Amino acid sequence: MATLDELAALFKALSHPRRLAILQLLEGRELCVGEIEQALHLRQAYVSQQLTLLRQAGLVCFRKDGWNVWYRVARPEAAALLETAQAIRDTLGECARVSPEDVLPPCCENPECS
User: Fold this and answer.
1) Taking a C-beta distance cutoff of 8 angstroms, is the pair 59, 69 a contact?
2) Burial of residue 9 (number of CB atoms within 10 Å: 0-12, 13-18, 19+)
3) Which of 4, 30, 39, 77 lies at a CB distance of 3.0 to 4.6 Å from 72, suitable for a disulfide?
4) Where are the beta strands (DSSP E) in 1-114?
5) Domain count along the chain
6) In CATH, what number is assigned to the domain containing residue 32?
7) CA-based diameter of the chain, in Å?
């Protein structure tokens, strides 16, 4: 099981909008640096720098084919993590719905929570 420091390092790697964009772009496919550069309208050096950070975090892996380096998401769970983060972001400030048999105190001042 990962330590809290290891999880924090993972979230740090995910804490940049361009790295998130790269991960979304790579979801379900493999792309070379040039294709990522064109799709996101970024410089090659910048894309390579972000890919290096994602690779060091274990979020992407690569293979070389001649002059090209092809990247893909290393683990499909990364896409699920991004979807979960989006769902959390979309519902920030709302209390989670619980079933009546759950005996939990209200989580906030929202009357819907009690």
Assistant:
1) no
2) middle
3) 30
4) 31-32, 60-65, 68-73
5) 1
6) 1.10.10.10
7) 62
Angstrom CA distances, 9 to 18, 98, 104, 108, stand at 17, 32, 32, 30
> DSSP states of 16-34 as a string?
SHHHHHHHHHHTTS-EEHH
The pLDDT tens digits for 21-74 are: 999 999 999 999 999 999 999 999 999 999 999 999 999 999 999 999 999 999
R_g of the chain computed on alpha carbons:
19
- Note whether 31 and 70 are within 8 A (CB): yes
- Three-point CA angle 100, 88, 77, nearest 5°: 110
Identify the domain containing residue 104 by its residue range: 4-113
Per-residue pLDDT averaged across 80-99, rounded? 84
Cα–Cα distance for residue pair 88/91, rounded to 1 Å:
5
CA 105 distance to own-chain centroid: 32
**pLDDT category, 95, cuts 50, 70, 90?**
confident
Q: What is the pLDDT of residue 2?
A: 82
